[in-house]
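Quick sanity check, PAS domain-containing protein:
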Amino acid sequence: MKDDDKSKEQLICELNDLRKQTRFYKNVLEQLPVCTIAYDETEKAIYRNKQSKIIDGYDDEQMLGLSRADYLSRLQIKPGKISKITHYHHADNNFRDGIYSLNETTLLTRDGNLKNVLLTGGFIYDDQNNFVCACGCALDISSYIGEIEYVDHKLQEQLFFMQRLVDTIPNPLYYKDINGLFLGCNKAFEEFTGLTKENIIGKTVFEVYPQDLAVKFHQMDAVLFNAPGIQIYETLFPYADGSRRNVILNKATYLDGNGTTAGLVGVAIDITERKQMEEA
């Protein structure tokens, strides 16, 4: 039905429906917890929602009408961080279809604070595929970054404490992952073997010990991984001066958060003097 064929009442009803839809979508945009900005085809800022002011502190009068470049400059967002927020057909100077990628960067608020934000956006077209606007969105992740940094700090403290705790153990101690790669050791291990953490981390027994000992240790590790639990045996162990000491090697597997065997920890007890006394 053409508009000319519609009654005045029908047109008024349709107009009211359109107004309701417009108010609905505007309310949705205004309530979004994401800063949303629209640019026209000349890159001029024509719309920003309430969250925009909450994030950057500027009034609409200070930001609307600015070019994209001036908008970003005021917030001190580097265009390079946006991964080409706009794209052009050089011939007619219109926007190209597309979506620009998600980027993490910072913006400077009106009161001089830096905020961490995630930026993304795209291009909006009507049902006739006519360009409507380019839309840019920014999500304030400052609080999340703060939480992550806090958790990271606490984990670093725990890691430092655990390493100090391990270093207080008087017997040589080391630990490996499920692939047999060394993950670390304590001070006593370094002093006993003459090897530092840097010498062993990420390496296999074949890269750390003499071949004959490496073969034995590798075989025994394989037995333990095939039957997770505890393993105790007597063996020779390389000493810092190049000699070999008699030790009792206590090893046990450990689990990851899913309850799967993740590696092993080993502790060596030097029994060389006791063996010498027994043989004397």
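Posting the structure with no commentary besides this: The longest helix spans residues 142-167.
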